[in-house]
Amino acid sequence: MRAVERLITQDKVDFLLPPWSTAMNLAVAPTFHRYGYPLLAGSAVTERAPEFAKRWPNSYWLLGTGSQYAEALVDQLTSLRKAGKIGDSIAMVSIADGFGIELATAARAAFQKAGFKLAYAKTYPVGTQDLAPIVTEARNLNPDVFIAFSYPPDTMAITDQARVLGFNPKVFYTGVGTAFPLYKNRFGANVEGVASLGGIDANSPAVKAYIQRHKEVTGAEPDRWASLVTYAGLQVLQQAIEKAGTLDRKAVSAKIASEEFDTILGRINLKNHMVPNMLTLGQWQNGEFVGIEPASHAGAAKLVFPKSAWQAGAAAR
């Protein structure tokens, strides 16, 4: 927080870009508010987003709430259960940090409301090196559905362990990192059918152009979730400054709260301090992480079920 304070009070920067992660955005939000800086949080998921928007009127929570992601997943699971393709039993693990706590709490409520049963629910601390025991315990219950609200290193380790142990549930859903190109590069064809948060409209010219520009500038592809949302937030900030015709933060913030903007996610407004109709469930299909929910979203694909079996020839690298 001292670094943020210094940028504001000593360097006197006109605007600040958001940090990465739910925890960091929550930590800096009061400081942004105190000094009148708009916070366009593109990598924070919190159930309290509506409350924080009222507490800190210059804050915008672009990834939305945990309930949005949990309900998108439950909608798909409910349809599968209704069709007789899965039962009621779910195995869930989560990291004991901001993201994992938020998502696991929202998921528990959504599962209970929909009549699903958590046959296995385990949290693990940040920095856990050996996740094999957790994956083994979940595998031994033979669930149709396995969910991990995990951070990128854990997402890689959990997937690796599931593959090694031959744990191949019909629905395999892991957390942050699944939508990263790193995930596809590491697991190759084994990513097919793996689900997670986010996703893209793979047919959108604007999204395709963004991915190409990202590769040209950085030498790597962007992730298929927060990267696009964060960039859309930067487009909003740029256009709000242009619309205001000034660097006065109060005037710019007023434009963010009241105008509509052209972004790579389409035309959006942030009047409710969140991105409307955002993709909340995605899946790797034919080498691309495509959006599944909400089904009404442009370019939304159908869920591929069941997840493809792990391939021995497509081992992690």
UniProtKB/TrEMBL annotation:
<comment type="similarity">
    <text>Belongs to the leucine-binding protein family.</text>
</comment>
<dbReference type="InterPro" id="IPR051010">
    <property type="entry name" value="BCAA_transport"/>
</dbReference>
<feature type="domain" description="Leucine-binding protein">
    <location>
        <begin position="2"/>
        <end position="287"/>
    </location>
</feature>
<dbReference type="Pfam" id="PF13458">
    <property type="entry name" value="Peripla_BP_6"/>
</dbReference>
<keyword id="KW-0732">Signal</keyword>
<dbReference type="InterPro" id="IPR028082">
    <property type="entry name" value="Peripla_BP_I"/>
</dbReference>
<protein>
    <submittedName>
        <fullName>Amino acid ABC transporter substrate-binding protein</fullName>
    </submittedName>
</protein>
<dbReference type="InterPro" id="IPR028081">
    <property type="entry name" value="Leu-bd"/>
</dbReference>
